[in-house]
Structure to design on (379 residues):
């Protein structure tokens, strides 16, 4: 299988099947899952900047590959006779050397300190760049000396060596362990919510909406401002004038993220009683409008993921019956599972902020019906 960035002209990486933190084997990489479930899309603004050709999630995957080696991998075989001024590429080099320039550019452009990002793996790439003295000479079109890779093979080898050394420290491994533990806890919590909801309701209407802010205001919003808007979202949805949208809501799962080109934003999965409502496009649109017009008073933007659900190879949103075990598996393993994943991309600077959160399941108004215990299947 191939991994490709969101830009169709971007380089392609070879990859094996992906095994998530819960031992679930899928033939999609983290980046593929991200695109498959529409978890990282532009909000549809005319002012939006196109996605990076080399996604931050691929940076994470790249470092994860490096740390798996018992010794630092070399893109260029330094102990071999040079040909045309440079040694031959290794297997690792054939896979990654042509992409190092893109990797460096994305990390430099991300501006981790500016944007409150604290990705563990991206952070060590940033440190290696700084130690080698690679400079971000043009903010709009970032460049690096790695783009002239045929003249700088020694720097490439040193760059990979530095990253590998940083991934072998005790402090790095300890932080990685806590990150995985947090992901497992998040996943278990989200899975429990979905199973409990299906045990009470025979059908669920699942809508996915991304909630963000207009470019004109997003850089001026603090983390507390963003969290305040979501608290206002939860407060206002209880009011009677919005009963038409939220009357049959069952609960929600949400994740707070930050991206350099989108600012702070929420990935929201909201569940409704599928016996009462069934138009997922309508409810996703109404949720988005509620955020953009009522909660943020015109400062917000949104993306209706349900509008594109028929384009997904594996769809876990829309109307799902409790007997549709395949759809339930996609919902749990891919859609919700991605929100709970262990990478620390765009983690807010405050360590105690809960990025992943879910509500309680609202009880049925009528206790009629018997409990269900359908198990989701492997996909």
């Amino acid at each position: 299988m191939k991994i490709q960035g969101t830009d169709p002209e971007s380089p392609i990486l070879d990859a094996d099947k992906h095994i998530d933190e819960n031992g679930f084997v899928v033939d999609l990489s983290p980046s593929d899952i991200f695109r498959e479930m529409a978890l990282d899309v532009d909000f549809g603004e005319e002012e939006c900047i196109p996605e990076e050709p080399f996604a931050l999630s691929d940076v994470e995957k790249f470092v994860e590959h490096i740390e798996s080696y018992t010794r630092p991998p070399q893109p260029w075989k330094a102990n071999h006779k040079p040909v045309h001024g440079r040694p031959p590429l290794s297997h690792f080099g054939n896979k990654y050397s042509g992409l190092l320039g893109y990797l460096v550019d994305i990390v430099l452009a991300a501006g981790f300190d500016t944007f409150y990002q604290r990705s563990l793996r991206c952070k060590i790439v940033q440190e290696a760049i700084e130690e080698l003295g690679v400079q971000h000479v043009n903010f709009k079109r970032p460049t690096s000396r790695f783009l002239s890779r045929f003249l700088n093979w020694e720097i490439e080898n040193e760059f990979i060596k530095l990253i590998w050394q940083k991934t072998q420290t005790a402090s790095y491994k300890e932080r990685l362990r806590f990150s995985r533990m947090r992901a497992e806890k998040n996943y278990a919590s989200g899975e429990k919510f979905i199973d409990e909801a299906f045990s009470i309701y025979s059908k669920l209407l699942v809508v996915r909406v991304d909630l963000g802010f207009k470019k004109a205001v997003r850089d001026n919003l603090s983390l507390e401002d963003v969290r305040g808007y979501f608290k206002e979202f939860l407060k206002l949805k209880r009011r009677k004038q919005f009963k038409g949208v939220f009357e049959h809501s069952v609960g929600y799962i949400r994740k707070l993220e930050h991206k350099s080109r989108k600012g702070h934003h929420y990935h929201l999965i909201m569940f409704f009683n599928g016996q009462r409502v069934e138009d997922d496009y309508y409810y996703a649109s109404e949720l988005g409008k509620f955020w953009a017009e009522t909660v943020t008073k015109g400062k917000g933007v949104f993306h209706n993921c349900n509008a594109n659900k028929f384009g997904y190879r594996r769809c876990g949103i829309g109307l799902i019956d409790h007997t549709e075990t395949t759809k339930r598996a996609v919902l749990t393993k891919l859609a919700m599972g991605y929100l709970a994943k262990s990478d620390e991309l765009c983690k807010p600077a405050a360590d105690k902020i809960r990025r992943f959160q879910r509500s309680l399941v609202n009880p049925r108004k009528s206790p009629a019906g018997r409990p269900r215990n359908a198990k989701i299947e492997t996909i």
